[in-house]
Amino acid sequence: MLVPQAMSYAELAGLQPIYGLYCGFVPVFVYAIFGSSRQLATGPVALVSLLVSNVLSGIVDSSDELYTELAILLALMVGILECIMGLLRLGWLIRFISHSVISGFTTASAIVIALSQAKYFLGYDVVRSSKIVPLVKSIISGMDKFSWPPFVMGSSILAVLLFMKHLGKSRKQFRFLQASGPLTAVILGTTLVKIFHPSSISLVGEIPQGLPSFSIPKEFGYAKSLIPTAMLITGVAILESVGIAKALAAKNGYELDSSQELFGLGLANILGSFFSAYPATGSFSRSAVNNESGAKTGLSGIITGIIIGCALLFLTPLFEYIPQCSLAAIVISAVMGLVDYDEAIFLWRVDKKDFLLWTITSATTLFLGIEIGVLVGVGASIAFVIHESANPHIAVLGRLPGTTVYRNIQQYPEAYTYNGIVMVRIDAPIYFANITVTYIDSSAVQALKDLHQEYKSRDIQIAISNPNRDVLLTLSKAGVVELIGKEWYFVRMHDAVQVCLQQVQSIKQALKQPNPLLDDKLSFFQRLLEQREDDLSAAELESGDKRLLISKNTDSQLEPLLSRKSSN
């Protein structure tokens, strides 16, 4: 599967097919030794190949030797970035990119990749671009040069590939067809060329024979201009490789070290660049096939590397007659699985906000290019993070009848609330960047102090229920615990509510006794209570259709808020 895919992806990257095989040689060995996943298949992939082509074609023509040197330099830079992120454990930064942004980006990129391969089907050149409009214009403007032989051959081979993929996925006994599809496409195309000798079908041509020689990457003067692309490729590599590696690790019942994963990928790219490889990363399709084939250790990668080495030593003369449309069919077949329209439909039903992110990212990637698409998608993703953090959901709570459980009164309208007491819960939003992190910083501490001062001036008492250890420690260091009063911190919401109710009752009782001095200093809250009827019972403090009485015999469990059978 790797040999034909490697050659196809190298052409997508604007390189000679041999460099795809180089990318699937040394990096495969290195990752098998230093990587942490037992099933991840590394090497060239479509998305990274498109990124390489997109940036380098703007610097130099793909026929120039400098183009190849810059692709190799890019592998070194990506490897260094991955190693740094692995050593410093910075993989968490990718969590700021939501799944909807990734899906939108890969969907748009897949469409661009497929259109860029149309020239091998149509028989004429198409402009090299990462934007859909120039590609479509170029395809339409060159229709007068359309050639039937490559179109018929390419379409037929693509149909065979899709049929084999479908059959391999739907029938377990034909699972091997999914992996053998690319090889079948190459053999079928080469056989047809050998039999009919069509002059209008372009071939791969002569490929150098032998293993890649050791050489240090050159052209470091261009490194500064390649940094943004190196960072983008690193991000894509983390998302693809670590994502599929984690899924495979969970499926096979072992733990994955993300930092070691990044370091292994980085080292694979660094050492690969010394042997003429362009950026390599984990492949979704080949990793899935590797897992389904029964791979249990990194030895599968070493065996793959040995086979690629044998192909470089002995089989390259056979590759000369592979038709370009066969390789294009392999690329199109591979990227069709990246068009994630099902995700868009799912997001529309479940979360309109994430659907908007998906739409923005895919649209900007299609019409404005890959770099702008990624920047806009990531920017929108981070903006949503900031918005969620700055506007957390705040729930007013009530007690569920017959329990000491307090829940959102909008979600549970039967829950009881109490006159004179408001129970509020500030929810930490569950979203892709924090995955429920309970935390309070210095700004929040100051805001809590200001809130206490404002409420104190209005004779409103704050009580805090069940803060976690880190939050409580921060509040203690900041003096907020002493400011509010230690007696107003509770383990349970139920305890806090009962103490507050007792406080309300004590104020009410005090108001019943005439006290001139007290009357002169009545607080806002006390004046409010005085306006109520003097015979206000404890039961009237609680709202709802049922009236639950407060027991006079308060026990250590602070349970008298619960109804007794005799008082229902």
Automatic annotation (TrEMBL):
It is found in: Membrane. InterPro entries: SLC26A/SulP_dom, SLC26A/SulP_fam, STAS_dom, STAS_dom_sf. GO terms for cellular component: membrane. The chain crosses the membrane at residues 12-34, 41-60, 66-88, 100-122, 146-164, 176-196, 226-249, 261-278, 298-315, 327-349, 355-386. It is a multi-pass membrane protein. It holds the Pfam family STAS. Keywords: Membrane, Transmembrane, Transmembrane helix. It comes from the Eukaryota. Residues 437-500 form the STAS domain. CDD domains: STAS_SulP_like_sulfate_transporter (cd07042). GO terms for biological process: transmembrane transport. Its main location: membrane. PANTHER family: SULFATE TRANSPORTER. This is STAS domain-containing protein. It comes from Hevea brasiliensis.
